[in-house]
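We were asked to recover a plausible sequence for a given structure. The inputs and outputs are reproduced exactly as logged, with field labels preserved.

PROBLEM: sequence recovery
POSITIONS: 229
GIVEN STRUCTURE:
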């Protein structure tokens, strides 16, 4: 009996098993990401790339928030034991648990970014000085990085919406290294979309979510130590 247990542990916990477990979890979570965001992605691919469609682009991105939250939840709870993998179960548990809280953050965030993007797009028609572009771009960048922090926090912890908003802003200032790491992940996503397509970005969804978890690890650890009992 002890030999059987030892063999199981060796099989489930070796280096190759850990890599295989991670690849399996990434594949499953990636497929579920594609499934849950498919309506928005299909509609987005059919839309013409025109500034007048900005509100429709935002609507297409609405399913992305809960899906990313579920992926963050599932990959955060990934265990490298090949004999005990349930990424799909964790994904759907995270989706059900977080959908309301995430939408309370995601929807206003999308609306705000849409307003900023519309202002930048129709900047010339507003007849304002060109230097106003700089603060608008800075607002968009800060709002985006704040939104990433808020998404990670609300996906992994149980806080009120206003507390999530405050913590996201607090760690944006306290841990600029995390913000820089998140900016790098977002830049990679933008480059993939620009030089390939939204479909290719969807295929790389789970590795990008995993990268986001890695860059946010300092923030997650500090929240666990300082803000949870």
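RECOVERED SEQUENCE:
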């Amino acid at each position: 009996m002890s030999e059987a247990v030892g063999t199981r542990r060796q099989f489930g916990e070796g280096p190759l098993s850990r890599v295989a477990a991670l690849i399996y979890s990434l594949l499953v979570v990636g497929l579920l990401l594609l499934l849950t965001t498919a309506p928005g992605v299909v509609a987005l691919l059919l839309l013409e790339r025109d500034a007048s469609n900005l509100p429709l682009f935002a609507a297409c991105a609405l399913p992305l928030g809960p899906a990313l939250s579920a992926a963050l939840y599932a990959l955060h709870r990934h265990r490298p034991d090949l004999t005990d993998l349930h990424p799909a179960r964790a994904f759907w548990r995270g989706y059900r648990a977080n959908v309301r809280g995430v939408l309370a953050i995601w929807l206003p965030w999308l609306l705000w970014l849409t307003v900023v993007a519309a202002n930048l797009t129709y900047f010339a028609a507003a007849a304002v000085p060109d230097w106003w572009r700089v603060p608008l771009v800075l607002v968009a960048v800060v709002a985006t990085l704040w939104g990433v922090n808020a998404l990670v926090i609300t996906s992994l912890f149980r806080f009120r919406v206003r507390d999530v908003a405050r913590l996201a802003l607090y760690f944006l200032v306290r841990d600029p290294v995390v913000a820089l790491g998140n900016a790098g992940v977002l830049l990679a996503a933008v480059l993939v979309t620009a030089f390939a397509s939204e479909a290719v970005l969807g295929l790389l969804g789970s590795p990008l979510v995993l990268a986001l978890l890695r860059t946010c690890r300092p923030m997650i650890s500090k929240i666990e130590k300082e803000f949870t009992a």
